[in-house]
Records
---
Amino acid sequence: MSRTVWGLVVLGLAFALFEAARRPLAPPPLEPTAEAIEGALTVTPEAFSFTMPEGLIDQPLVVPAANPLSVEKIALGELLFFDPRLSATQQMSCETCHLPERGWADGLTQSPKFDGSPNARHTPSLYGAGFLRELYWDGRAQGLEAQILAAWEGQMGADPDRIADELGQVAGYRDAFSETFDAPPTPAGIVDALASFVRTIHAGDTTWDRLPKDAASLETNAVGRGSGVFSEVAQCTLCHLPPVYSDALFHNVGIGMDADVPDQGRAAYLTAAAEADVLAASVGAFKTPTLRGVADHPPYFHDGTAETLAEAVDLMLAGGIANDALDEKLVPRQLTPEQRRDLLAFLEALSPDAATYPRPVLPE
Ligand code: HEC
Ligand code: HEC
């Protein structure tokens, strides 16, 4: 190609980029569907100006093309997350059930919704939710945007259109939405901003991340020895894969299968459309939770039945709870008392140092 043609190509590209940058970030239509996720960009966090903790730096976040991260959107999402004006009762925010100081869960077995009715399942931590394509314990929500819209309506009783209008009456929000989306508050904008904020919630920079990984440290230190027990002796890494300590898949480990009417888990959401063997393996199957930050948010499991970390770990070491659909990767593991102690030390070391989360000042 001649130099002139190259010049034209470069000029054309520059113009296209300029045009793309000039276009306002219009919020995408509401109810992002499976298509939105299929077109998802899997982006490494370095591309964005929030700092990913060291231990997770190589782990790609799942970000749909329709909702790219931006600093403004994350900051706006943080305000919305802590704002009770998002609920029907004006009394409840995302924080009500997802408290930063409780590992972004709430310490309850089952949390009451806005109308006092109990949730069927235990509130999970939000650590690492941005790594997931399928959200909720059974994976029924495709992408964070769809899940957050469901939570906003279901947990908080929101009428999204009405609440977007109400936020439009708040000068601080009007300005923030105008700067972020070049538009007044809309339900889709609210959901996108919340999802962007949730994508920044991580348990990186933990004692384990800071521990030197040379042979001596791994042998002389309880946390280091515990990491070996976790991956080699007890083989927990068959499902809890580093660095997130989750495979983002669904397994039956038997929790709740001894109840009178067991929660069918993923099988209840996958319908007749699923292959018979997939469906059978999904009975009582729930998402492998991340173990980052795990010590911060007892009680444990989808039904919140294990009150302490030690209790949850002992149940997993015992091979779960026997039932017909039990995942064959979970088998009983015999540990010495020292190995069990080291294993618990390792799991404790996967949590960030305790700190109070500085709440944002809400706009008026
Ligand atoms: C009344 C309590 C409550 C409130 C309020 C609430 N949640 Fe949740 N959240 C839950 C429960 C319970 C689940 C698990 C439900 C399930 O799996 O069936 C959940 C699940 C989630 C998940 C999925 C995590 C995962 O690992 O799959 C995310 C993300 C989340 N909530 C974010 C939010 C956001 C953002 C808000 C505010 C718009 C919010 N939640 C408000 C109780 C609540
Ligand atoms: C077959 C896959 C698999 C293996 C192997 C496995 N886990 Fe799990 N783990 C899960 C699943 C799935 C859950 C969620 C179960 C539920 O709530 O119904 C879970 C839950 C947990 C929890 C509770 C976390 C929370 O946030 O509620 C802990 C702690 C845990 N596992 C530790 C371990 C340890 C330690 C090992 C090794 C001894 C191990 N797991 C082996 C799949 C596995």
Note: Residues 1-41 have pLDDT under 50 and may be disordered.
---
Amino acid sequence: MAPTLPRLILLTSLLVMPIGVCRAEEDALALFKRRITPLLRSPNPSSCAECHLSGVDLRNYIGETQEETFAALRDAGLVDIKQPDNSKLLAFIQRKPEKPTPVSEAVRKQEYDAFRAWIHAAIKDPRVVAAKTDSDQLGPAVPLTVVRHSRMDRIVESFVENIWSEMGRCASCHSPELNRGKIGRNGHTKEDVDAISWLVPRDPAATLRQLVESGNIDTDAPDESPVLTKPAGLTEHGGGPKFAVGSRTDKNFRRFLVDYAAVVNDKYVRADQLPTPPKLRGVMTKQHLRIVDVPEQFHRKLLRVDLYRWIQADGEQGGRWSESPWGTAENPIAGKRQLWQSMVTATAPRGSRRAAELKPEQPLPGGRYLAKIYIDQQDRTKTDRDYELGEAELYGEVEFDGPWAEGYQPPKIIHAPQPK
Ligand code: HEC
Ligand code: HEC
């Protein structure tokens, strides 16, 4: 059947529409619908997630319409109309960690190509360029302090301070470089030993990833993470208990795990929900301290020593003990042997110059120290893991002096003080 007259007119009128404008308009809109909107609806994490565990995501920058999206990006200075390839949003998308995963690289390329093509098309469309929005809704939905707290580099830093710093206690069995000798012993096959080699030598970020992927960090119930319950002696552990429940190490492990779970579960939405870091920064030394003649009745009680350093005044005259401890150590007492022993952690107030200078395995200088000894005689840390031993548990003080070598053969040996 031949087309009727009105249909013909409609067809020709479509054909004579100003083609340039029409194509640009269609292209930008089509691109937006075909390549940008799906990013908004995608169930997979965006490339941002490789560094921003929560708080900000590429989706935060995509509005319901292209006009709204463009106007908000333009107003926020994230698109550069004169030099589209210099758009800040494209720079955000191009950020990548030192070792990106292949999946995130593919996602990143897809996002970059999509946004670059759309931005180029959109700036050719005067209607889109001139679009207005009164919404400043685009961008992170949480305060910037939360965005910063949820960043991977901050999280790795916290992992290093709270967990990685203790890896010396785990490496002999869990580092593939050090545990080969376990193969064939006690019936352990190579597969058995490989299966528990979650420690990636010299790479805390990869170790964290490995612990998460192997299910040893439980983000639903962080206190039940095997990386905590096994060495804390709360569940069966091939390596036995490695630290006491309620000890500094236990607190550090839990501080990291609880915070990490809150970040990945998007629990932080306000700045006042963020945890405050502890006042002291600590780094393990390789020095050991032993206290002998500890009363046998304190068997298995948690003992903490804080070490204050003698600060000599200028000109030889007088001096004082440091205001905050230079070192600390914590372990249960071996009552039957009447002794207590532990590796020592060097400490300094967070943000101080000395804190910045603390380095792993760097020994405390030899010289004069005051050891303040706290004993948890009531087992308060066992019932409340967050309990901090304080004045109520102060058992006594001892001074010591002289050189202090690394290692435990011999450790620095001091005598238990008379009780206060
Ligand atoms: C390679 C890691 C990495 C990736 C991937 C990454 N960012 Fe960031 N982002 C950072 C770092 C580091 C900072 C803070 C320091 C800076 O701005 O250089 C930051 C800061 C930000 C800020 C500013 C917040 C502030 O602290 O002022 C925003 C917003 C942001 N990123 C959004 C994004 C978006 C959106 C994506 C994905 C398209 C993304 N980032 C991808 C590492 C990354
Ligand atoms: C003397 C050897 C030894 C030491 C030291 C040791 N472990 Fe273990 N660990 C084992 C053995 C053996 C297993 C396997 C049996 C089991 O699951 O308990 C294991 C299992 C684990 C697992 C489960 C691994 C998996 O994927 O199944 C975690 C997590 C763990 N240990 C954490 C630690 C932490 C943290 C430390 C240091 C604070 C530590 N271990 C120190 C021997 C050790």
Note: Residues 1-22 have pLDDT under 50 and may be disordered.
---
Amino acid sequence: MGKRTKSKKQLITRLVLAIVVSCSATVGAIAQDGEQLFIKNCSACHKMGTRLVGPDLTGVTERRSEDWVKSFITNSQAMVASGDADAVAIFEEYKIPMTSFPLSDAELTALVGYLGSFGAAAASADGAVAAVVEEAPIAYTEEDFANGKAYFQGGLRLAGGGPSCISCHNVTGEGVIPGGRMAKDLTYAFGRMGGHAGVAGILGAPPFPAMTNAYNGTAALTEGEIHAIAAFLKQSNDGESVAVDNTKYFDLSDGGQTLMLVYGFGGLILIFIVIGITWKGRLRKSAKDDINNRQLRSI
Ligand code: HEC
Ligand code: HEC
């Protein structure tokens, strides 16, 4: 009994020590890095000095109070729902719900500090911001359009082995196979995301959990793939469609019925994979399994 109490005490001491150490390490890391937080969480949609998926955040800490910015980052849709006039106005303008970030107060403070370093005054002083907006238009070739369409539909495999976009997204257009309804229709996504930079930002570092999982690590999209897919989305946004010979990629001899079957199964498997990932930590056996086995062995 005495031994047991001691080891329990030791355990608690170690636990407390571990928590203290990890907390102080985190605080140190956070203090230094609002910029890292921004790059990791926000840069897919925000860029200083220009509009991307979301607004230019230059001078945002002068337009809004610190508390406002913090609550907006934590849950912008809750602010819109509560009728906050500024939140409603900016959401009405962009109509894209911003991702919610469950960050700690220390992290939020670091982020706001970083945003504050891009004051409106600092921006107008050196004119550098205006120059960023004048980016050269991106050129797409016919090959980009065709490849992008094939990547999107799964006719061309993605180098990293990630799923094709069509398993979750739909694009309406001539010769485009009907796609998934799990996620937003992307027919006009190119315009919605503010053009190439926005689409490339989203695909380079997807801020949506379903996509982050699908294109994580080695499954990340390559620059060439992103360029081609952006070309395809631009084309669909502009209502043009390049004639692509789908038979080059798919066997459509039976009017695409086999293909639909394949996609049906593919979708099902994908759903199982997503479920598997989501419940990775589930208890696979009964909690009493060990006791049970021990009992069985002793018989
Ligand atoms: C998925 C894209 C996306 C991501 C990721 C994102 N935002 Fe946003 N953000 C938006 C959009 C779109 C708006 C415009 C408001 C709206 O539609 O709700 C916005 C608006 C804002 C605003 C209000 C701007 C103003 O003028 O009032 C702030 C502040 C902001 N974002 C900060 C951040 C920070 C900080 C992060 C990272 C922690 C972040 N956002 C990540 C899309 C995004
Ligand atoms: C596993 C499912 C899945 C796959 C595969 C997937 N996405 Fe997504 N995507 C999502 C989800 C979920 C969202 C979040 C918005 C929503 O709910 O629709 C999203 C959002 C987007 C957005 C922002 C749309 C908007 O208007 O807000 C773009 C652009 C996009 N995806 C492009 C792609 C492209 C291109 C591919 C293929 C390379 C792809 N996605 C593959 C699930 C997926």
Note: The pocket of heme C (ligand 1) is lined by residues 41-42, 44-46, 53-55, 57, 60, 63-64, 69, 72-73, 76, 90-91, 94, 96-99, 101, 111, 207 (CB under 6 Å).
